[in-house]
Amino acid sequence: MNQQILFNDHVEIDWDQGWAQFHAMVAGQQVPCLIGLNVLANKLDMTLTSAEEAAAAFEQLRFDLEAEAEILIEDEAFDAQGRIWLGHPPI
Fold it and tell me: What is the pLDDT along the chain (91 residues), one digit of tens a residue?
């Protein structure tokens, strides 16, 4: 694990927009990391029916998602807004 990239424990589920967002701290800057709820559901082979289920699914996969985000950050795979998107190429 890269000690220069730190993740906090907070996750925000935006049910209406269809994504979960968490943050990495990289060189003193907060980097938003997002994953589509459909991608999250596919990773667990389940259907998410509420924001609470989505949050529980995220927690189940937290360490894997953080590891994936870490690789994308190291690869500088940011979108035009400086965000990292897990599960698909930068927008």
Answer: 456 899 999 999 999 999 999 999 998 999 999 999 999 999 999 999 999 999 999 999 999 999 999 999 999 999 999 999 998 654 4
Residue 51: phi, psi to the nearest 5?
-65, -35
C-alpha pair distances (Å), 6 with each of 30, 51, 57, 75, 87:
9, 25, 21, 16, 20
Closest to 43 in 3D by CA, of 32, 31, 59: 59
CA distances in angstroms from 76 to 15, 32, 49, 50, 83, listed in the order given: 27, 13, 33, 32, 10
Give pTM, 2 decimals.
0.89
Give the phi and the psi of residue 77 in degrees, each rounded to 5.
-90, 50
Token pair recorded at residue 39? 């991608």
